[in-house]
């Protein structure tokens, strides 16, 4: 065994016991002895009179530290707070990484997400970079990209975070946007430098295509929709409970009609999406227990993959790979055509995820519909229809709400999330909806500022349904801070 989540009975017993209210705590612990030794001692002692699991854990493991926000300087602004915050979130490379520890070592300085997230998270990092760009921290941006390049070279893809328990899945593929952002500073040589990173990313998300060519309907992260239409979906290589959410996954599976491997993979796939969790992944009936992420072709994912393809094609032109450039451009055009065919609904005038099992869109209105506008993939008429619905249904006193469903899930109403504020704001501006974009921006900045003045914190999401609603959620400092600075700088 290499990692804590491979401890078998000990891991199961700890996670199901509730000793740690947060299931992520135990997988993130640092073992004091070899895991095989710890497992052997547990089996030997667990049935002895007076045995206490909590005492055993403290004897054999060091608990992780939270990267919570620090005390706010009452005379300082939120911008000043964030400048200091980068130092709090910075991890130095570990010259001698600990063995049998879930943290995957990185070669360069990095920024962790903050709070309970003591590691680098993939898609968070792009939004963190928006703030670093404002402050001219190109050194950190390059370090972060170098770390992702290292992970891709080591594992053939970018894990969702640099933890061993993320090695079955990635996160929304923002690497091409990160590279393009860095190219604003370093020029086209940034694309050349990270060409290998982008090609590995592309290969990872195309895995399964060969099976589709042989007649399968779906394989890994690829789905065949008929004719020449192929689109991507979220997936995970494993079909077991997520180690960092073990108890929650096991308990949900017991209430579901799905076979255990199926619901576990659906939960893992939703985690790869970053939207963990949202009613956008639920079947029409069955609520959370009916989660069916792997049946769904997400509109936002395929927009991101289109950008990856076009960025790769641009890089091929720079380095003279003309044949590969044309192939990837053809793939990008095919993806765009399939996306517009299957995810656009003329009747509703909105972009939706597509359920390839039912053969129709999900009819779940979410801010994922803004990604075609963010990447300029749709017509002006389509953008106008989407913008009307955004203003009518999604714009709330505190900013933009993620979905219209109040399911109790984090990525549903009443919550607004920092990254989607940015995507929507830029998407609206791309199609000259300046007034609506600026109104959404103003409301979100006011919400973040008001929460900071009240609590001295930057949180991962806020209740946007009412003006001045208190945000007492988990801190996820990196991307919330980055989006705040990026949006403030747009004024």
Summarize the structure in words.
This protein has 491 residues and is mostly helical. The protein has 19 helices and 16 strands. Strand 5 and strand 6 form a beta hairpin. Helix 4 runs antiparallel to helix 19.
Brief characterization of the structure:
It is built from 19 helices and 16 strands.
| Physical arrangement of strands within the biggest beta sheet | 5-6-7
Percent range of helical residues: 40-55%
Beta-strand level of the residues, as a percent range? 5-15%
How many runs of DSSP E, i.e. beta strands?
16
The largest sheet is:
3 strands, antiparallel
Q: Which geometry do the CA atoms define?
A: globular
The helix count comes to 19
Q: What is the gyration radius calculated from CA atoms?
A: 22 Å
The poorly predicted ranges are: none
Average per-residue pLDDT, rounded, comes to 93
Distance between the termini: 53 Å
Q: Find the structural class using helix and strand composition.
A: mainly alpha
Key attributes of the depicted protein:
16 strands, mainly alpha, 3-stranded antiparallel sheet, 491 residues, globular
Topology record:
Blueprint: H1 9-17, E1 30-31, H2 35-45, H3 53-60, E2 61-62, H4 78-89, E3 90-91, E4 110-111, H5 122-134, H6 138-155, H7 175-186, H8 189-193, H9 195-206, H10 209-213, E5 218-219, E6 222-224, E7 230-232, H11 246-253, H12 260-273, E8 296-297, H13 299-319, H14 322-343, E9 344-345, E10 350-351, E11 354-355, E12 360-361, H15 371-374, H16 380-394, E13 395-396, E14 399-400, E15 415-417, H17 418-430, H18 434-455, E16 461-463, H19 477-489
């Amino acid at each position: 065994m290499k990692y804590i989540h491979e401890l078998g009975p000990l891991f199961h017993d700890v996670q199901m016991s509730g000793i740690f209210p947060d299931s992520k705590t135990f997988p993130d612990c640092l073992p004091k002895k070899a895991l095989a030794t710890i497992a052997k001692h547990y089996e030997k002692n667990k049935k002895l009179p007076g045995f206490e699991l909590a005492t055993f854990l403290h004897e054999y493991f060091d608990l992780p530290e939270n990267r919570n926000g620090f005390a706010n300087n009452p005379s300082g602004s939120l911008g000043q707070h964030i400048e200091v915050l980068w130092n709090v979130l910075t991890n130095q490379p570990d010259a001698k990484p600990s063995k049998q520890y879930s943290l995957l070592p990185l070669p360069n300085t990095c920024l962790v997400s903050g709070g309970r997230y003591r590691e680098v998270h993939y898609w968070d990092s792009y939004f963190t970079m928006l703030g670093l760009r404002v402050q001219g921290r190109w050194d950190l941006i390059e370090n972060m990209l170098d770390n992702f390049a290292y992970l891709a070279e080591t594992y053939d893809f970018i894990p969702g975070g640099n933890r061993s328990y993320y090695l079955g899945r990635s996160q929304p593929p923002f690497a091409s946007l990160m590279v393009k952002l860095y190219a604003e500073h370093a020029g086209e040589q940034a694309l050349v430098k990270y060409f290998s990173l982008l090609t590995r990313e592309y290969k990872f998300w195309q895995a399964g295509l060969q099976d589709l060519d042989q007649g399968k309907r779906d394989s890994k992260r690829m789905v065949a929709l008929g004719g020449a239409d192929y689109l991507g979906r979220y997936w995970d290589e494993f079909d077991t409970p997520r180690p960092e959410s073990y108890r929650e996954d096991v308990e949900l599976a017991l209430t579901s009609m799905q076979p255990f491997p199926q619901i576990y993979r659906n939960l893992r796939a939703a985690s790869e999406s970053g939207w963990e969790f949202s009613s956008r992944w639920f079947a029409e009936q069955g609520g959370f227990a009916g989660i069916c992420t792997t049946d769904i072709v997400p509109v936002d994912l395929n927009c991101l993959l289109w950008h990856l393809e076009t960025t790769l094609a641009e890089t091929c032109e720079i380095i003279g790979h003309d044949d590969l450039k044309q192939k990837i451009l053809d793939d990008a055009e095919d993806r765009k055509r399939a996306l517009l065919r299957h995810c656009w609904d003329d009747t509703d005038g909105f972009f939706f995820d597509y359920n390839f099992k039912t053969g129709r869109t999900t009819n779940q209105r979410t801010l994922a519909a803004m990604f075609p506008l963010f990447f300029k993939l749709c017509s002006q008429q389509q953008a106008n229809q989407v913008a009307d619905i955004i203003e009518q249904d999604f714009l709330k006193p505190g900013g933009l709400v993620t979905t219209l469903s109040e399911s109790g899930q984090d990525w549903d109403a009443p919550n607004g999330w920092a990254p989607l504020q940015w995507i929507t704001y830029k998407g609206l501006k791309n199609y000259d909806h300046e007034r609506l974009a600026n109104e959404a921006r103003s409301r979100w900045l006011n919400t973040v500022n008001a929460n900071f003045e009240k609590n001295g914190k930057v949180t991962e999401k806020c209740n946007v349904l009412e003006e001045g609603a208190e945000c007492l959620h988990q801190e996820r400092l990196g991307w919330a801070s980055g989006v705040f600075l990026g949006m403030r700088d747009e004024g």
